[in-house]
Design goal:
Length: 278
């Protein structure tokens, strides 16, 4: 695929995704979005969305390396499922794996974690649609917050060059949270190396929900070459092409219902809309 053709297909995908969310996830716009996903090279996302819209929600398989996981196509996370089962979120358009309880932590941390980083097109449409008010100017120390930037496309398809606060806002806009090294470490105990490498592509780090210990620093985690989860620190307003984000839900506090919004995204913003109520 030439760079020009790829760029055209990316623009089309962004437009169709924006139309889909803007329509309240209508069936007609959803099927158009499914075709755009297929054209861009995301056949599993395309098939999952198409089957969900058509009501054919049983028997969908992600294939290797997730072939042993049952995949649910539903508006909200299913209940009474097994660890490593997968749920397709038809709003964020992400596949999420059922997490397990990390040693020493209560059941409140059990929930769902995305099985890939957030894609550029997902974040870009969030930028187009999000509405917010600034809660406290004192915390906002940059002048390009949530501004359109050229990121994620040249090196990989994943969104990067994000401030920590932007990553948190994106996740909260979908009724979720950003991932933590604790949750990922617990999952790593059960996942195969192939699953881990799919979930955490080599060379990329992720903004971490874990408290960094100081006001001006933020936590970052990544998959190390030995299969362990490395933990690092970055400046509160740092951003690089090496840091992206993943989203998670916890059973007790990660709600998707639009009645919990508007909500805080962090220190800077109050979100005024969400993906399920654009």
């Amino acid at each position: 695929m030439s760079d020009e053709t790829r760029a055209q297909k990316l623009i089309n995908l962004c437009n169709k995704y924006q139309e889909y969310l803007g329509s309240g996830a209508s069936d007609v716009s959803g099927l158009e979005l499914s075709r755009a996903l297929e054209s861009y090279g995301l056949p599993l996302h395309a098939e999952a969305l198409s089957l969900y819209i058509k009501g054919e929600v049983d028997g969908f398989s992600l294939g290797a390396p997730w072939s042993s996981s049952k995949c649910y196509l539903a508006k909200k996370p299913p209940e009474d499922v097994n660890p490593l089962d997968v749920w397709f979120d038809p709003y964020e358009l992400s596949f999420m794996v059922r997490t397990v309880n990390p040693l020493g932590y209560g059941k409140a941390v059990i929930g769902w974690s995305s099985i890939s980083p957030v894609f550029y097109w997902q974040y870009h449409v969030f930028q187009r649609l999000v509405r917010f008010s600034i809660r406290d100017d004192a915390f906002l120390q940059v002048d390009d917050f949530l501004a359109s930037r050229s990121f994620g496309v040249e090196k990989w398809d994943y969104a990067s060059n994000l401030y920590h606060e932007e990553a948190v806002a994106y996740a909260f806009w979908h009724g979720k949270w950003i991932a933590s090294n604790i949750r990922v470490e617990a999952l790593a105990e059960l996942l195969s190396q192939e699953q881990l490498k799919t979930m955490l592509p080599e060379g990329m780090s992720y903004w971490d929900a874990t408290f960094s210990g100081t006001e001006d620093l933020r936590a970052v985690f990544k998959l190390e070459k030995d299969g362990s989860i490395g933990k690092y620190l970055a400046g509160e307003w740092d951003r690089t092409s090496e840091i992206g984000l993943m989203t998670v839900i916890t059973d007790q506090v990660g709600m998707l219902s639009s009645d919990v919004l508007p909500r805080e995204s962090g220190e800077c913003l109050t979100l005024l809309n969400c993906s399920r109520g654009v």
